[in-house]
Amino acid sequence: MKVLIIDDEDDIRRIVRLSLSRVGGMEVIDASNGPDGVREAESGHPDAILLDMMMPVMDGPATLTALRANPATESIPIVFLTAKAQTAEIERLRAMGARGVLTKPFDPLALPDLLRAVLSGGN
Amino acid sequence: MTFARRIVIGVAAGTLVPLIFAALVYRNLATQSELREGVRARYEALTSAALLERLAIDMETGVRGFRVANGQEFLEPYRAAVAALPALMRQLRSSLASGDDRGQVEEIYAHIERWRAEWAGPRIAAIAASPAVGTAEAVMLLQLPPQLGASVGKASMDEIRRLFDRWNARQREGLAKELALQAQSEFRLSRLLWGVAVAFSLLMALGAAQLLGHLHRRMDALFSGIRAAENGDYGPLDLSGRDEPALVAEAFDRMLRQVEKRDAELSSIVENIPAMIFVKDAVDLRFVRVNRAGEQLLGIARADLLGKTDFDFFPRDQAESFTAKDREVLAGERLLEIPEEHLASRDGGLRVLHTKKIPIRDGGGKPRYLLGISEDITDTRRAEEEIRKLNAELERRLAELHAANRLTAFGVDVAAALARGEKLRDSLHECSEAVIRHLGAPMAGVWVLDEKDQVLELAGSAGFDATEEDCQTRIPVGTHRLGRIAEERRPQLVSLDPDTVPGDGEIWARRRGMISFAGYPLLAGGRLVGVLSVFAGHDLTNDAIDALASVAEKIALGIERAQAREALAANEDRTRAIIDNMLGGLITADAHGRIESSNPAAERMFRCGGGGLEGHHLSERIPFAEAQTPEGWVREATRKALGRVTEWKAVRCDGSRFDMELSLFPFATRDGWHFAANVADISERREVERMKKEFVSTVSHELRTPLTSIRGSLGLLTGGVLGQLPDEAKEILSVAERNVIRLVTLINDILDLERLDSGRLEMHFVLVPVSSVVDRAIESIQALAEQTGITIESTSKGGALYADPDRLVQVLVNLLSNAVKFSAAGSTIRLSVDESKDLTEIRVTDEGRGIPADLHVAIFERFRQVEATDAREKGGSGLGLAICKAIVEQHGGTIGVESEEGKGSSFWMRLPGAASPRAAVKPGVFSRSPRPGVLLVEDDPTLLTVISRQLGEAGLDVRSASSGRGALALADERLPDLLVLDLRLPDGDGFFVVEELRRHPHGLIPLIVYSERDVTARERDRLRLGPTRFMTKSRSTDREFLDAVGEMLSEPQTKGR
User: Fold this and answer.
1) Residue B713 at interface with chain A, using a CB cutoff of 8 Å
2) B755: nearest CA in chain A?
3) How far is CA B625 from its chain centroid?
4) What is the pLDDT of residue B204?
5) What Å distances lie between residue B51 and A86, B38, B425, CA to CA?
6) Pick the residue with more confidence: B128 or B851?
């Protein structure tokens, strides 16, 4: 399973990478901003994308819209990883096409399972 | 023939006789005169002839003497005689008009002239003319012719003398004849005069005798007629003829006719006069005449009365009294007036008479009749008595009226004084002057009570100088006379007798001669406001007290009014000061939104100094797009901001914009409706809010990001993902990880609480099965429980809740995790759900160490845990239960704990059950069945009726109570779906109703606090029940109220404010 992480924070990317790869045994690619993320998604063909909300240049929702607009990436399930976990926000993101929302800070040991659970349909 | 004519004719005839005689006398006298004239002429002729003779002699003598003696002196008589001769001749000629006598004189004269011409004439003339007179020559001349000698001319002279003698004799003879004739004529005249006198006298005597005889006869006839009339025979008095007696008789007859008529009239008058007129015979006092009034008065017919005396009709004593009076009158012979005498008439009972009795005398002056006039004054007397009584009554009334008028005038004076004065002091001064005027007292004063100090203060006086040394102007209540009047509230009237003990503080008044004092308490509606005092130099009476009483209340009310006015003014000043100095802006506008006033804060806010707001329309400063016209603005603004705090964009006078908070409330004054606008510049608050929001956002993101990294890193390390670490290192890393988690929790909780407080925590209410909530909660805690060997038992049922499931899960998780934390390993935690019709209760019961009773409430407060160390030990933030409480309350529920130390705790939350109508209510569904029940608690019966009807008409099942107890009884019977609660209740305030209902297991029902006054924030906390809304009656329209009711019944979610 190949997961694309799009987050502007290097530290977060590193920890998520470690968590998913070491704990969850997943293949991980990453991008530090929206445009890069879209390119990575086109080229790397990930099975899922973990997307940060707050990013410079192009924030999470914008990136999501870009990904959904791109035929190459439109079908890749997208899960948000955000510190803003208000219900209304979650509903909005779901409405925009997100598969689910995972909150920061997260337990690195539990993250791969949570991701799998979200991707498999629960939340 | 009248006597006058007879007399004229007689006199005329009498006069004719003397006239004839007069003519005869006249003729006689004329003859006599002629005779006398002849005599006189003859005497005159005799005298002149004698003179002529003399002249002739003188001439002859002179010429002879000259001739003889030749002395010039002899010529002198000659010359004088010659000179006198012509004049004498003229006289003679005139006196001897003609006849023989004159002829003879002419003859004599002719002789004389001849003599002169012959003898003396030419020569004498020549000598006399020559200058040689006396000379010899002249003598010569004379002596020539000498033949003539001395006897020359003697014969002529003798002839002349003889002529003279003859003439004289003849004259004397004539004279004698004439004198005899004259004497004869005189005798004849005297005889005539005597005859005339005798004849005239005889004639007159004859005429008079005839006339007198006739007159006597006529007068006799006249008098006999008059005497007959005198005796009452008014027969015609006819004297034939037209003389004076006949005329007199005629006139007398006319008079008699008049008298006859008058007599008839008089009789009629006498007969008809209302007074009794009677005539009695003077001798035996028998009635001879009585008129009709007399008959009626006496009740006796005239026929019965005439010829009788008083004794025949009246009781003896009365009759004696009457007759005694009659005799007195007749003896005294003059009128007697009896002002009042009583008479017993036969039919009319006792009558009162006013009688006059008059004697009537006969021709000889002796009394013949007695005339009596009696007036029946019975009724008059009675009327007079009545009038006297009426007069007395009238006078009494007039006196009363006069007194009342005086009092009224006094009252008017006082009222005018009170109305006139701008200042109370001036008014009271004028009142005092009015008192002085009306009571005639020299000093008066009005003392006003200072209620705070209980001191009477002299507020107005007249007649004395209050600054006089020992005149007090402040007198404590209860001391001195005035103070006692104030205390006892009774007037006093005191005589300041110098012999008595000197009154307190009145020495100065006595010194000025005051001897009397009156004081009156001034009560306004039973409240003492002062005392009225008067000093007088005369004794004051109760009338003075009455007078003071009549004005006391007026003055008291005047004082009260003035005090109220002053208090009002002070109040206005205070209000003004508050308004001017308050921080909030206050603008008032008329009903059309035109600004009427603004306080300095508002002017600062709008930067419109110096009244720059007034007169403008509110819409100029607070515009909004929906309102195009000022009217629209008012409509829209009142709809939005009436009684509510709302936010607007406002425009300052300099054009800049700012955020403003506006609350409008209407108020009515005498001139109609107005608006007051509370305005506040909230730009700063807005800025702060913005910054806070930003801060929260920043914290949530900027703080979480590094924490995410730390937490992640630590998690990876402690999880052994990156290889196994030494045990000690792992332990230290665990500490770090645990605290990071705590920090994250803390931040999350703080953010949650902040959102809950500010109302920005989003809630999404849906109808959710209780079981799903319970399951999610247990699921999320299961792992933790298993780690610590704790069992979680759940007895969930299939009911539904109208709630935000995520938040509810959060609460349950919190409760469960607490239970897990404080439970010993191997123990059991029970989660039970109990549903009734209205309420769902979820209970988490553990077997932990329990919570002391005094902390049962405190633990729901922030940062409170059972023990200070718990938080650190168990990794909690100390905010969990506070958040739970807030969330549950947002659901209209309650949360609490039942616990006993050492025996575990049981946390419960009660939420409006799915079975509650609210849970299923959709907006505007009042018509559903059963109808939602509203319990209305309102003490004002009118409002109670009005609101009940309105709610009933809206399709609600309304029950109402006018007291708190009544409301609780109704609620016990059946809980309503909505409680509308007034705070002011007869048996306490609304707070206790809320408190009681909170104890009720299902008491947390929706509540509208509908109160007169605004409810403070602190009070709001005490008043929350279920979803609670606060409305102020005066600021909410009926529509708004009904809308609120609708919202509360249809939408069980609400925000916290």
Assistant:
1) yes
2) A86
3) 60
4) 85
5) 207, 20, 142
6) B851
Facing residue for B762 by CB, picked from A12, A54, A87: A87
| Chain A neighbors of B698, CB-CB under 8 A | none
Sign of the CA dihedral running B596, B601, B604, B610 = positive
**Contact flag B764-A106 (C-beta cutoff 8 Å):** no
Record the tokens describing residue A88, joined without a space: 């209304």
Whole-number pLDDT of residue B852: 84
> Which structure tokens are listed for B658?
């700012």
Q: Is A120 on the interface with B (CB under 8 A)?
A: no
Residue among A83, A87, A108 whose CB faces B716 most closely: A108
Find the CB nearest B705 among A12, A88, A91.
A12
Segment B77-119, tens digit of pLDDT? 777 887 888 888 888 787 776 677 778 888 888 888 877 777 6
Q: What is the pLDDT of residue A16?
A: 92
The pLDDT of B274-280, averaged and rounded, is 87
- Nearest C-alpha of chain B: how many angstroms from A72? 31
Nearest Cα to Cα of residue A122 among B775, B655, B342 = B775
pLDDT, tens only, A8-48: 888 889 999 999 998 999 999 999 999 999 999 999 999 99
B779 sits in which H/E element = helix B770-788
Q: Does A17 touch chain B (CB under 8 A)?
A: no
Give tens-digit pLDDT for B431-486.
Answer: 888 888 888 888 888 999 988 889 998 888 888 776 665 667 888 888 888 888 88
Instruction: Please tell me if residue B722 touches chain A, with a CB cutoff of 8 Å.
Output: yes
pLDDT (tens digit per residue) in B6-17: 888 888 877 787
Tell me the CA distances in angstroms from B645 to B93, B668, B1040, B1046, one per residue in order.
174, 21, 14, 21
Check residue B617 and report its DSSP letter.
B
Q: Which of B698, B705, B780 to mutate to test the interface with A (most CBs of A within 10 A)?
A: B705
Q: 3-state DSSP call for residue B280? A: strand
Whole-angstrom distance, CA of residue B611 vs CA of residue B619: 17
| Angle subtended by helix axes B1038-1050 and B941-953, to nearest 10 | 60
Tokens of residue B903, six digits: 């025996």
Cβ of B700 and A106 within 8 Å?
Answer: no
CB B344 within 8 A of CB B318: yes
Indicate the helix (H) or strand (E) that contains B298: helix B292-298
Hey, which residues does A103 pair with through a beta bridge?
Answer: A82
**Residues of B with Cβ-Cβ distance to A108 under 8 angstroms:** 711-713, 715-716, 719, 721
**Token reading at B223:** 């008098």
**Rounded to an integer, what distance in angstroms lies between the CA atom of residue B736 and that of residue B711?**
9
Q: HSE of B841 in the Cβ direction (CA atoms, 13 Å)?
A: 17
Q: Mean pLDDT throughout B194-211? A: 85
pLDDT on residue A111: 92
| Residue B529 vs residues B484, B564, B565: alpha-carbon distances, Å | 14, 12, 15
The answer to whether B471 touches B508, Cβ cutoff 8 Å, is yes
Residues B998-1019 have pLDDT tens digits of: 777 776 788 888 887 777 777 7
Give the mean pLDDT of B796-814.
Answer: 81
pTM: 0.36
Q: Is B828 on the interface with A (CB under 8 A)?
A: no
Q: Which residues of chain B make contact with A54, given a CB cutoff of 8 A?
A: 701
Cis peptide before B491 (omega within 30 of 0): no
* pLDDT tens digits for range A85-98: 666 677 788 888 88
Q: How far is CA B597 from CA B301, B616, B634, in A?
A: 105, 10, 17
- The DSSP line for A18-51 is HIIIIIT--EEEEESSHHHHHHHHHHH--SEEEE
Taking the mean position of all CA atoms in its chain, how far away is CA B199? 107
